[in-house]
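As a warm-up, study this chain.
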Amino acid sequence: MSTTTVPARSGLDKVVATAAAAVADIPDGASLAVGGFGLCGNPVGLIEALLGQGTRELSVVSNNCGVEDYGLGLLLAAGRLAKMTASYVGENKDFESQYLAGTLEVELTPQGTLAEKLRAGGSGIAAFYTTTGVGTQVAEGGLPQRYAPDGTVAQASAPKEVRVFGEGEEAREYVLEESITTDFALIHALRGDRHGNLQFNKSARNFSPLAAMAGWVCIAQVEELVEPGELDPDEIHLPGIFVHRLVHVGSDFEKRIERRTVRQEGQE
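Now compare it with the structure written out below.
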């Protein structure tokens, strides 16, 4: 991933007035790490602001790509994404059609590996070895990343280095995975203070801290903005050192449930 020359905000107060102002300097062709899992914890205000300003040719790293009319699916439907690095894409028909048509490059990555690639990138670790993917196309290469208009594979994944660690019966093969850093990160949190310290709500925590660490400039939207010192230090999930801009979006926006499953009345 490329890096950006956009500076962080100066001073300790990282609050920006609007989501539009927070994402205004994200250029065409930028790379983004975006928090969220399914439709939980999506930074929808920032995504909508990015959609509104018309930014194109984005390379996005996120667990999934939302659905057709929510989350990252908004950018996808508008043709704003050039590449998507994700672990799951099964809920978005636009994703399937663009991928098969050859207009979207896709890098599928095992979920745990994707999380560690983001964490490693944010921690200054260039690469790591994992057993996940050994003996499959993840390690051996050949996964279709882009199709040609005629349906043939125009670009496939390259083979990765595999090494053996351990001796005798303990010897196992491991595949080398490179870490991920991006120009920007977009995340959603329940609560944040003006210094950028954040708290997430239960499972909405998901990929957000990892995405924040991987982005050279992290932009966070929060439902509740508090003053420095109001958050218990032991309850801060992401320290403000990783956050460069903060937008207060409130809680009056749609929070989708991807698949609602309920028990019929009278069933045990």
